[in-house]
């Protein structure tokens, strides 16, 4: 039985992971002639450029500079396309392979008789999963291939733009050495390490934006708290005036308002522990309002909006 | 003479405007007046200040406190002159957390 399972596993791993071709075959003219730029040819072009600069022939030098940069760029682009393709297919293939191995091991552990065999298969599976996780963490920092590729593309197009702008200048304003420097940046923009750094930078920028948004929210809340506290204070003073020196009707109305306010706050802000009896006098109810306003003042965030709403709706 | 309130904990992450608004809100709700703000030293889990307030009678409105950061002590005379010209008097000179950084602050009312 064990042999059968092993045979299924080996068969699956070796035969079922055959992936489709990742891209169409490149025509030979492109792959052999256009993509290649031999070192000796580069040296000839470089010498010709130097000669044109020495002879003060800026237009010729510019043509040579541009030609040289475009040939190198073409090579970089072709190699990058291969790299991107291999990265995508390589990771996809290895993931399929790893998945099949994991499923096979789980299946084997399930249907195998004998505790020792089960333990060995389970331990091997744990070690395999650990190894797979380690590859993801150490090589890809757990980023998806799509996010890595799109980051590399974005980064490359930024440097390409810089290069194109530079090449619009004369050789005295944008020398071949400067162009080569930008080309090297362009080359490294298409690397896995650059993509990981860029992704990390983007995450950090997002975190900074989120913090700024949170700070702004706090600032606006504190401004609103202050504004609302002024209105609360005014309503409270008005209630106090009515209770201390108002007419009997005004005192009764103020008591009714307080009953309503305290009733609402008891339900809406349980942490204030509002305590009163419907039979309490206006003065007792007012003292309770004062107590809860003190408690609320020490709370952060301060629930001024709820208190104000209760006061305004109870008037 | 009013009654001193238990010191109220205020976040050390607030900038000066936030701090002023927080203290102003407390003054209006209680009602009370700010006496001083100090750095809270018994909070291992973060930066906090403590506001010390004294109650005032209901109906008494205490103006919003104004805080000024002292980045250079030689600027203190000009800060004080500016605040006095606006009709305010100094209520404290202390080092507290402002945006989580220990900062010397003058308080006026």
Written overview of the protein:
The complex is a heterodimer of chains A (315) and B (109). Chain A is mainly alpha-helical and 315 residues long. Chain A has 11 helices and no strands. In chain A, helix 1 runs antiparallel to helix 4 (58-111) and helix 4 (58-111) packs antiparallel against helix 6 (145-167). The N and C termini of chain A lie far apart (84 Å). Chain B has helices at 16-29, 76-85; strands at 8-11, 32-40, 48-55, 66-69, 90-98, 101-108. In chain B, the strands form 2 sheets. A 3-stranded antiparallel sheet of chain B has the order 1-3-2, with helices on one face. Chain B has a 3-stranded antiparallel sheet with strand order 4-6-5. In chain B, strand 2 (32-40) and strand 3 (48-55) form a beta hairpin. Chain A binds chain B through residues 218-219, 222-223, 225-226, 229-230, 232-233, 236-237, 240-241, 290, 293-294, 296-298, 300, 302, 304, and chain B through 5-6, 8-11, 14-15, 17-18, 21-22, 24-26, 28-31, 58-59, 61, 64.
**Termini distance of chain A?**
84 Å
What Rg of chain B, in angstroms, do the CA atoms define? 14 Å
Care to count the β-strands of chain A?
Answer: 0
Provide the gyration radius of chain A in Å: 37 Å
DSSP helical segment count of chain B: 2
Binned strand content of chain A = under 5%
Structural class of chain A: mainly alpha
Using the alpha-carbon principal axes, give the shape of chain A: elongated
> Would you count the extended β strands of chain B for me?
6
Concise overview:
By secondary structure, chain A is mainly alpha-helical.
Salient structural properties:
heterodimer, A: 315 residues, mainly alpha, 11 helices, 82% helix, B: alpha+beta, 3-stranded antiparallel beta sheet, 39% strand, flat
């Amino acid at each position: 039985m064990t042999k059968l399972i092993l045979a299924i596993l080996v068969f699956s791993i070796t035969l079922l992971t055959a992936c489709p071709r990742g891209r169409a075959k490149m025509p030979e003219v492109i792959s052999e002639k256009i993509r290649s730029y031999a070192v000796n040819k580069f040296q000839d072009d470089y010498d010709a450029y130097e000669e044109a600069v020495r002879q003060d022939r800026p237009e010729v030098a510019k043509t040579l500079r541009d030609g040289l940069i475009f040939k190198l760029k073409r090579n970089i682009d072709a190699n990058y396309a291969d790299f991107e393709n291999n990265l995508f297919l390589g990771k996809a293939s290895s993931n399929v392979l790893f998945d099949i191995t994991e499923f096979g091991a789980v299946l084997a552990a399930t249907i195998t008789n004998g505790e020792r065999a089960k333990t060995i298969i389970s331990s091997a599976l744990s070690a395999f999963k650990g190894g797979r996780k380690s590859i993801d963490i150490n090589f890809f920092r757990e980023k998806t291939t799509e996010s890595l590729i799109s980051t590399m593309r974005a980064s490359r197009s930024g440097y390409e733009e810089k290069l194109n702008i530079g090449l619009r200048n004369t050789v005295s304003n944008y020398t071949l050495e400067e162009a080569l420097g930008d080309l090297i940046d362009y080359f490294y923009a298409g690397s896995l390490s650059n993509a990981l750094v860029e992704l990390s930078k983007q995450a950090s920028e997002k975190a900074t934006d989120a913090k700024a948004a949170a700070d702004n929210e706090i600032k606006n809340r504190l401004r609103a708290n202050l504004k609302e506290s002024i209105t609360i204070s005014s309503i409270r003073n008005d209630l106090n005036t009515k209770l201390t020196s108002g007419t009997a009707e005004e005192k009764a109305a103020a008591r009714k308002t307080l009953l309503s306010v305290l009733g609402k706050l008891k339900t809406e802000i349980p942490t204030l522990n509002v305590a009163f009896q419907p039979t309490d006098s206006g003065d007792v109810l007012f003292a309770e309002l004062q107590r809860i306003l003190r408690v609320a003042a020490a709370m952060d965030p301060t629930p001024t909006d709820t208190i104000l709403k209760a006061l305004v709706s109870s008037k | 003479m009013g009654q001193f309130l238990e010191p109220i904990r205020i976040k050390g992450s607030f900038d000066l405007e936030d701090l002023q608004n927080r203290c102003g809100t407390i003054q209006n709700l209680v009602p009370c007046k700010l006496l001083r703000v100090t750095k809270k030293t018994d909070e291992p889990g973060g930066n906090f200040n403590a506001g010390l307030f004294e109650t005032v009678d209901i109906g008494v409105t205490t103006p919003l406190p104004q805080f000024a950061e002292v980045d250079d002590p030689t600027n203190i005379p000009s800060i004080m002159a500016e605040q006095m010209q606006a009709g305010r008097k100094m209520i404290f000179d202390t080092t507290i957390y402002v945006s989580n950084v220990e900062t010397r602050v003058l308080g006026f009312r």
